[in-house]
User: What shape does this take?
Amino acid sequence: MVRIEKIMFWVADDVLHCKQVSTYDNIKIDINIDQKLQESLYAICNGKFLPLLIDLRAVNGQEALTIVKQLALSTTLKQISLSEAIVVNSLFLKLIIGCYKRIYDFTLPVKTFISLNNAKKYCLETNRIFNSEQ
Assistant: This one.
């Protein structure tokens, strides 16, 4: 497990999980934080490309959008992620984040879910497809 600022990252079942662990307070992911992410995430991923599951169910709408926007700036996450599954707590957030990702951050396949189980299934399927082609 790795904690960078107020976000926790860990690997379970060949999925890189991401979850906010305390109030976000508009912290920006700058170059230094992306460098910390690079060092830490490469270590916990063991050099493998993994799907990223971002769990935002415990945060409000504004915090969720801020986190998604800031994580989108991370070149490290784009380099090690096969896909992104974002779990939110409302249909409204699902639509807003889905639109944002399609317009501004379209480098990875992204799906937004309300169900954590469906998000995990998507991640496992992405991982299975990627690894079957190698």
In short: The radius of gyration is 14 Å.
